[in-house]
Amino acid sequence: MSIQVNALTKWYGPQKAVDSISFNATPGVLGFLGPNGAGKSTTMKMLTGFVPQTSGTASVCGYDTVKESLAVRRCIGYLPENNPLYTDMYVKESLAFIAGVHQLHNPAQRITEAIEQTGLGPEQHKKIGQLSKGYRQRVGLAQAILHNPDVLILDEPTSGLDPNQLIGIRQLIKDLGTTKTVILSTHIMQEVEAVCNRVIIINKGQIVADDTLQGLKQAHQEQSLESVFIRLTNPQPQA
């Protein structure tokens, strides 16, 4: 398994953000869904080593996220929700910096490939601060895939993209899932239906569904993923 999670729990003071969740992930695109505040971003931060869990265990590519956090980070490409970027850097300059962090042996080739994959070609000589939000998202994605990691954790990767840009990035994520383990968090249900092999829904820190797209629809007798999502996460009774 690329990712194994067992009874993972996170407390922030008196608040339990993630409540003893367990799952595994193999190559493919796993949709990780839930309403705001459900524990999605906290789970992804624990998997990437950005915050420690309170209890439970998690491993990525066989490495424990706490005991072997540096090894875990070498295996992961991470695009966080807020997409932190050095806006005073030029696009290619920032990618060269990230290549140096990862000590890539072929940085120029990988930078060229990442720019091509993410459609950054027309903007590659601009400062990041001059880019639109959509192109900044592309820079964040390019940085995440630059070192060719086995696992990608993407938190709202298509935020700010226009409909034309969405098509290309969704296809890229789908293509990456043929050889890599991709965890994709998004509120766009059409995106999940377009690219994901499997879906986990988390609500109030607990996993309430883990199945294929078709399996979820059949189990809950719904025609759309959106309907399943609302049924499982909306505390109000439906009219």
Automatic annotation (TrEMBL):
InterPro entries: AAA+_ATPase (IPR003593), ABC_transporter-like_ATP-bd (IPR003439), P-loop_NTPase (IPR027417)
A single GO molecular function term of this UniProt record: ATP hydrolysis activity
Entries under SMART domains matching the protein: AAA (SM00382)
Keyword Transport: yes
All residue ranges annotated as the ABC transporter domain in the record: 3-229
Domain of life assignment: Bacteria
Keywords: ATP-binding, Nucleotide-binding, Transport
Sequence similarity: Belongs to the ABC transporter superfamily.
Protein name: ATP-binding cassette domain-containing protein
